[in-house]
Write a structure and sequence with these properties.
heterodimer, A: 162 residues, alpha+beta, OB fold (Dihydrolipoamide Acetyltransferase, E2P), 2 domains, two-stranded antiparallel ribbon, 5 helices, B: 501 residues, mainly alpha, two-stranded antiparallel sheet, 2 strands
Chain lengths: 162, 501
């Protein structure tokens, strides 16, 4: 009996930990938002991803685009919150990974029926930074070899013409 | 009796194909300049490799197939057909080397999508793609829109009658100026003037909307090329949604419409003949077509109930419609929203818009407005014949730069091409349905590929089956070249196998 009670206690603990973890994270993905846009419309959601492209300042607000690996979703954010974003994703850099809490709009009337999130809070999960790219020596070697082939062919062409 | 092609035929085809490859190699130098400006070393290497491969192929072809002879119709058509396929393979090299395309087939898909000004894409992680590769994606739209052969004609050809045969083979059957090489140069001049003006307008708007100046002008140039050439690629993964800007949407609508006009109409407008725009059968048909399809799409969107007020409904519906009708493929909604939020009526409206396209001798794909106008006139003529007394002489004419009397030959040609397009749309839809997609979604994607549009309802993705990728590549190719060159190459291959010496 004691053994059964311990097992039950441990199982309940494990279940609580799992579900607690789920609710604590509570983030939705872009695919879920787009696929279930009617259900999420007007709801408060937590969405996370990398900031890509430009932070586009518009008076006291800004537009940012946050990519979670599947899609990027536009986030309408106050200028003060946008000020916390230091890096945006591009070829040379990874953008800050952020978590946005805000209201999801399936067809936002304020912004021309765009599917967007109006941010109420922002948390930087991981700062982005420069991507260091090594010079590709394999490609350099290919360039040199192919260059040699082009020159030889060109000389042969000239000789053939004569 | 079908004759087997001679070695001489192959030599002539190979020689002119080699010349076109040189032209293509030259265009790959532009992204390198961009790469040097942005200090992107590895991407520059990708383009040097692609140029070298092109030069090798070009040198081999021009040396082995050296000839002074001019092209005949059959050879001209085959050169065009093959040059588009060769361009796809060569254009895909730098894309594949970037590592943003999962396979060479995916890179070829995007290259053909670019050259045919379609805009469907299989790129992965576009938001981290280099400026160099991104510019190339848009340059291939620009090259494809004006025509690969048009470049070669403008740069490398001093004057030969075969030029016209290649020009026609590229899906253009109208000369703006008496000389086809002057026509090609005019097409480039007009495109470059619009490129400068359009890029400046979009760049300035980008800055006003909060983008960094360098990005604003880079995006401006890319978006212009995609809009004017009715291509539909964008530098970021969200298409036009990325900008969150009404001004940006309006400017792109204007550029898309400009791109959908006949270059001959542009020439007349440049010459001061502004009345032509109100009289031309193509612009009149385009106006009525947009009006009818917009009405149907709007009713569909009202029934869907996704857009709460008329202004936003019009903004979303009109933008997607113009993007589809001009064959551009810019989106301000997510791909899967078409399938889940737009009802069947709205989708069918959009499919019709994509199928119809813009003007002939423009950068758009699809059936085209001139053919639609001619078919409408032919129906009208037949109706008049039924209604009027037997002795009455029924004459129908239309205005396209000059007044032309409608005859059976014109009507037959228009109907034939329209029928061929419908078969092409349906055959792609059948393949899509084979892979489990619904009829409407499969038809949507197939029409988008064959009409060189680029709107997607979500079928086009990295994970789609290779057969479907190849189907869409072939559809994009056939759709862009408008059948004639493709029929010729099929006949040529048949003659190689079954022909007699």
């Amino acid at each position: 009996m004691k053994k059964h009670l311990i097992n039950l206690f441990l199982s309940c603990g494990l279940l609580l930990l799992c579900t607690g973890g789920l609710f604590a994270s509570g983030t939705v993905t872009s695919s879920e938002l787009i696929a279930n846009s009617a259900e999420y419309n007007g709801q408060r959601v937590v969405y996370s991803g990398e900031v890509v492209g430009d932070v586009m300042a518009r008076k006291d607000h800004a537009w940012i685009n946050v990519h979670d690996g599947d899609n990027a979703i536009g986030v309408w954010i106050s200028a003060s919150l946008a000020g916390n974003i230091k890096n945006t994703g591009s070829y040379k850099s990874t953008g800050d990974k952020i978590e946005v809490t805000g209201i999801f709009n399936r067809a936002c009337l304020e912004h021309g029926a765009d599917l967007d999130i109006h941010a109420q809070g922002l948390r930087i999960l991981k700062e982005g930074g420069q991507i260091k790219r090594q010079f590709d020596t394999g490609k350099r070697n290919a360039v040199v070899i192919l260059c040699g082939v082009v020159v030889i062919l060109w000389i042969l062409t000239l000789l053939l013409r004569r | 009796m079908i004759l087997k092609p001679r070695l001489e035929d192959l030599k002539i085809i190979g020689f002119y194909l080699g010349k076109i490859i040189f032209g293509l190699a030259l265009t790959m130098a532009v992204p390198i300049i961009c790469g040097l400006f942005f200090k992107e070393t590895n991407p520059c290497l990708d383009f040097i490799i692609a140029i070298e491969v092109s030069l090798i192929l070009g040198l081999v072809l021009t040396s082995l197939c050296r000839t002074d002879k001019d092209l005949n119709w059959m050879q001209g058509m085959i050169v065009v057909s093959l040059s588009w396929f060769v361009a796809m393979f060569l254009g895909a090299i730098p894309l594949y080397l970037s590592g943003h395309w999962k396979s060479f087939l995916d890179a070829c898909f995007d290259a053909m999508s670019g050259f045919s000004t379609t805009g469907l894409s299989l790129v992965v992680d576009l938001d981290h793609l280099s400026y160099t590769h991104n510019l190339w994606r848009h340059i291939i739209l620009f090259i494809g829109g004006q025509g690969i052969v048009v470049i070669a004609l403008s740069l490398f050809v001093k004057g030969f009658s075969g030029a016209f045969r290649m020009y026609v083979g590229e899906g253009r059957d109208e000369r703006i100026l008496p000389n086809v090489i002057h026509t090609s140069r005019f097409i480039w001049l007009a495109s470059l003037v619009y490129l400068i003006l359009g890029s400046l307008a979009l760049g300035a708007t980008g800055i006003l909307e909060g983008m960094r100046p360098v990005n604003a002008f880079f995006h401006g140039a890319c978006i212009f090329m995609a809009a004017f050439d009715t291509g539909g690629f964008t530098p970021q993964s969200q298409s036009i949604l990325y900008y969150h800007s009404f001004a940006y949407e309006m400017i792109t609508v204007m550029i898309m419409v400009l791109g959908a006009f006949n270059f001959k109409l542009h020439y007349h407008l440049w010459q001061g003949n502004r009345r032509e725009i109100f009289k031309n059968i193509e612009t009149v048909t385009l106006f009525f077509s947009i009006l009818v399809i917009l009405s149907a799409t709007s009713i569909g969107l009202v029934q869907s109930g996704i857009y709460d007020n008329a202004v936003v409904l019009f903004r979303k519906g009109f933008y997607q419609l113009i993007s589809g009708h001009t064959g551009t493929g810019f989106q301000t909604v997510y791909a899967s929203q078409f399938g889940q939020d737009w009802n069947n009526l709205a989708l069918v409206g959009l499919i019709c818009a994509m199928a119809l396209g813009g003007a002939v001798c423009s950068t758009t794909g699809g059936i085209k407005m001139l053919r639609l106008g001619i078919i409408f006139k032919a129906f009208k003529e037949d109706l008049k014949r039924i209604i009027m007394p037997e002795r009455a002489v029924v004459i129908e004419k239309f205005h396209h730069i000059k007044d032309t009397f409608l005859n059976d030959k014109l009507a037959r040609a228009a109907l034939m091409i329209t029928l061929a397009y419908i078969i092409l749309f349906l055959s792609g839809a059948l393949v899509g349905m084979f892979y489990g997609h619904s009829f409407l979604n499969a038809l949507f994607e197939s029409t988008s590929a064959a009409g060189n549009v680029g709107l997607s309802c979500g079928i086009t993705s990295v994970g789609m089956p290779s057969v479907l990728k190849i189907t869409y590549i072939i559809q994009m190719w056939i759709g862009r070249l408008e059948f004639m060159s493709v029929f010729t190459i099929i006949g040529f291959l048949g003659a190689c196998i079954k022909g007699k010496k």
